[in-house]
Amino acid sequence: MTVLDGSIVTVAMPAIQSDLGFSPAGLAWVVNAYLIAFAGLLLLAGRLGDLLGRRRMFVSGLAVFTAASVLCGLSPTAGTLVAARFLQGVGGAMTSAVVLGMLVALFPEDRERTRAIAVFSASAAAGGAIGTFLGGALTATVGWHAIFLINLPIGAVALVAARRVLADDPGQGLREGADYLGAVLVTGALMLGVYTLVRTADHGWGSGRTFVLGALSLLLLAAFAVRQRYAADPLLRLGLLRSRTVTGANLVQVLMVAGMFTFQYLGALFLQRVLGLGELATGVAFLPAPVVIGVMMLGFSARLNTRFGPRPLLFGGLILIVGGLALFGRAPADGSYATDVLPVMVLLGVGFGLAMPALTGLAMAGVHPEDGGLASGLFSTTQVVGGALGLAVHAALASDRTRDLLAAGEAAGPAAGGGYRLAFLSAAGVAAAALLVAVALLRRGPSPGTARDAAEDGEDEAGATDTRDAEDSPTGSARVIS
């Protein structure tokens, strides 16, 4: 439902603007309000899931998200829709923050966990596949309200299933401690940071406003780090970040998702503004990528993970992503879908289908059960931050390049195509950086069955574990970007 929501809204934006009277700058808040709430609350929601129980947090988040979706669909004004989207982001954070920790706890055996992750990842890929197509179809036939109201039956089924299927876990209890000051600091830092990123399109990267807000966000983040070092019950145990594998996996995700978000959002604009496809045709054109991702995750990634381990799959997937984005960077303004776009969809689908499950398994490897929600929230947070950062940077690159080409006398279509091509090539460079970081930080650790080398991974005594090295296990969890 959350993946569906991320892709279904983008296609309906022009209709929403026309109906509710959004200004061009105000329309961005249909996306920004959700993104700021979602990103800002993931880490806190993950920790509260550990304390209060992940099932309780998951079910509560589903209820909030579903109710907020109804409010979005019934919104009579622009302000009401933005407020409802913020509430929707709160519900999305509550559910997404604990999903990976729940999967790791629910399926302790390697083989069944790998299969469960494959089904989970494929369902998320299906949400991505349906979202773009359904957004165009519903907007064109019923109206934009339906793209939000469709979450009501999905949410109702998910709520009933969750209450019946998921075992209740009491959590550690609030007596274990919730660092409320730390929660305020990190939530403020993440919300302000994402807000700064999404507003760079309006104010520019070199503006005083961007500099001041960015510096304040970093200051809050530094204050949070100091607070966690000395707090009696820290929100984020810093020992988790001293694991080379956990930190490396999250850093790789920031860079990889930055490239993939560029493909998803600017790629849709390229198809509409340069190749001239309509809303529904754009949705259909994007179907191959998530379908290939789902096929890879259901049919191949689990078995390949079991046979070769996560690192080779991650490296191979990143190489394919770099190749796909670079290929998209040469698509001409008068190109055809079959020869210039479809091969990119296939390459990126296979690459992401291989890389994401492997990367998520590494990010959750060796995490103590009591920190499962926290690690899940951290991984979800870096995913959102990576997407916001990549989109902000590459949208600015595309806009500046298009403006320069128009000033040089290029026609509108070729000028827009030139801007998007530069963004795709830059995204390929970012994905290449992700590959380099993966090779440098996610090198092979101890063999399966041996004790983890806490000194090598840099874990402190609280974060070290002497269990089987989960880093080379095919276990873990996977999410697909919305």
UniProtKB/TrEMBL annotation:
It is found in: Cell membrane. GO terms for biological process: response to antibiotic. Its main location: membrane. Residues 446-482 are annotated as: Disordered. Keywords: Antibiotic resistance, Cell membrane, Membrane, Transmembrane, Transmembrane helix, Transport. Gene3D superfamilies: MFS general substrate transporter like domains, Multidrug resistance protein D. The chain crosses the membrane at residues 27-45, 57-76, 82-105, 117-138, 144-166, 178-198, 210-226, 247-268, 280-300, 312-329, 341-365, 377-398, 418-442. Residues 1-446 form the Major facilitator superfamily (MFS) profile domain. The keyword Transmembrane helix applies. One of its GO terms (molecular function) is transmembrane transporter activity. It comes from the Bacteria. GO terms for cellular component: plasma membrane. It holds the Pfam family MFS_1. It is a multi-pass membrane protein. This is MFS transporter. It comes from Streptomyces liangshanensis.
